[in-house]
Amino acid sequence: MSCASSPLSEMGRPAPEELWGEHEEPTDAPKPVLPSIKFVKQKPLADQELYRGRILEGTGRHWIVEPEENPEELLECTVAGTVVSEEPDSSHVVAVGDLVSFVRTKERAPSGYPQGVIVQILRRHTKLTRYRRGEGKEQVLVSNADQLVILQAAAEPRYDRFLIDRYLIAAELGGLQALICLNKIDLGCPQQIREELRVYTDVLHVPLLLCSALTGEGIDSLRAVLQGKISILSGPSGVGKSTLANLLLGRELQRVGPISPKLRQGRHVTTMARMFRLPEGGYIVDTPGIRELFFWNITRDELEDFFPDFQPWAKECLYQPCSHIHEPGCAVRSAVEQGNIDSLRYDHYCRLWQSLPKYRYQWKHRR
Fold this sequence. Notes:
Radius of gyration: 22 Å
Number of helices: 11
Strand order of the largest sheet: 11-10-9-12-14-13
CATH architecture of the largest domain: 3-Layer(aba) Sandwich
């Protein structure tokens, strides 16, 4: 099996050179447009009375912050014109989950919350990010979480294994533990679903939970996994993220929307990430629906590192390094043909390989 000629790998997809260009790195490349917020490395002024907190939600201009000393009190904060950042790359704006230092102001926001100004962003320990094609940079969706719950549905819409594989890569890139949760199990056959997803549980050792927000099946198991941790609920629209969030929180805090009868897909209802404290301890982050998740700043040669199920055979390839796409004597392709490597996982690898650049600098010039 050769992925270079696979119709699933090439159908409707531009050639790699159309995306990236096979040229030398230009020395006079235009500099990216910097955000209006200035990030600096020095410590905040000593005469400022600083408070610590965690960002629960925000719109870009206003952010809801939970103070560390009194989690019951919420503040509405703006971001100072100059922000101290402990991040090595300070080009990212503030994100939900960020641990920040802020100063209090005397005014109250129109919402009734006390107001403050964020002056420092502390180092992010983990993050869920994606590549924003229009802006040519990484977007941090959520930071400082413990685990990523890859939320899919048994049906309406049916789970997408290609999206699952991309989420697994994003989780590893961001230092997050991953688990797969399938909602709407009342619409599917649990035994069949476990068999179809066996490569994740038996080979990749990713936990799989089956649940139903409608019948309550599996909800207690989900609660146990979430307890005491910061968990991101992420997946496409319509799989029931907000419904599950409301069920876990014990109250209606998130809007839910219907499934499109024409497309059998969900409609976007949640428009921004929001973090909530769970009654039994821990937090959940409900994120907007994601149909495409394109990760940031890896190359074709690095992609194999995110497919550990290839490793037992990759070292046996005739040519080293081997892309596992077109080289003769490729042990990985032979393992796929013999049924030792999941064929759909291999197809996903090929599709991702074709979408990635050969060199890291090409991320700056992706079209």
